[in-house]
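Regression report. Comparing outputs from two consecutive submissions.

Submission 1:
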Amino acid sequence: MREDRFLLGPLVARAFQQYWRFTRGIYLSVEACVIDDAGRTLMVRQDENGGWNLPATTAQNGETLETAVRRGLRDIAGIEVNAKPELRGFYAGIRDRRTGQISPRGERGQTGLYVVRDWRRLSIPNTPATSTPATSFFPLGSLPAGLPPMTAERIRRSHEGRTISQV
């Protein structure tokens, strides 16, 4: 009887692992470090009281990461990507599903960081005017105050041509 309990424990644990894998998914999102000809980085502010961050969006079901970054930049900032964006790496984070920004109360997942250097500004983002976030370009040496330190580090590494995991 005692041996049965030792065999049953791993089977029950394995069953719960399979159940959780299918019922508790993680998000897959993209973040773009858009760099202009002057070496400045595009930043987005979600609302008047929010801080600045890189433009980010969650990949939709069946969408490639490259398609997601192109859609996100077009919708959020009115930017069309002309050349293939450079994938610099992935990082784990907690993202707020509503805003797409990293949040302590969001869902866990993986985020791919892309660098975009070849782009053009479209006339208007493809979102209603009331929900269009503020966008601005910032020089590397004058990133906005209150920017999360890990975001600032990802921006610096992107400008230097390093992956986000290189020290």
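Submission 2:
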Amino acid sequence: MADRKGEPEFLDDLVDIEAELDEEQDVDFSEEELELDELRAERDDLKDKFMRALADAENARKRSDRDRREAENYGGSKLARDLLSVYDNMKRAMDTATDEQRAVSSALIEGIELTMRELLSVYGKHGIKVIAPAVGDKFDPNQHEAMFEAPVPNTSAGDIIQVMAEGFLLHDRLLRAAQVGVSSNPG
């Protein structure tokens, strides 16, 4: 009978050992699962950081390309602005020359005209365009600077009545607005 009493004890021990093993496996499994979840969260966080860094790098590349293009196109704007007075002075010289002076100094006048053409050609190569409004054109505040307003008969308000100086564009930016007089007639 002692064997029979030992059997149930042995079987009870087996049942207890199996229960302990099941608990350990459950604990191990849940620890592994927690570790796997942590690793997934870390992976997702690193992936998000990588994608943000990639987007930042792409934005920096685009910004540097834009800055390089702007430097190429507009880097010489100070020099171009300074050279506008050369054009203005040569134009004034040509406008004030009388027919008599043109006849006497034809070689000089021709030299000034050639120099002006060359200057305009160089301006064109570098994206500088002349804004040359005419009397009677409508005033455009984006390209013209009103130097004065005056009521002039047979004009309507906003008409250009006099052009003092031509304006210039560098690519799509205004270097200098054309200086004009504008009619202030009410109708």
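Expected: both submissions complete independently.
Actual: both completed, but the second showed a warning that disappeared on reload.
Relevant detail on submission 2: The chain has two domains: 1-74, 75-183.
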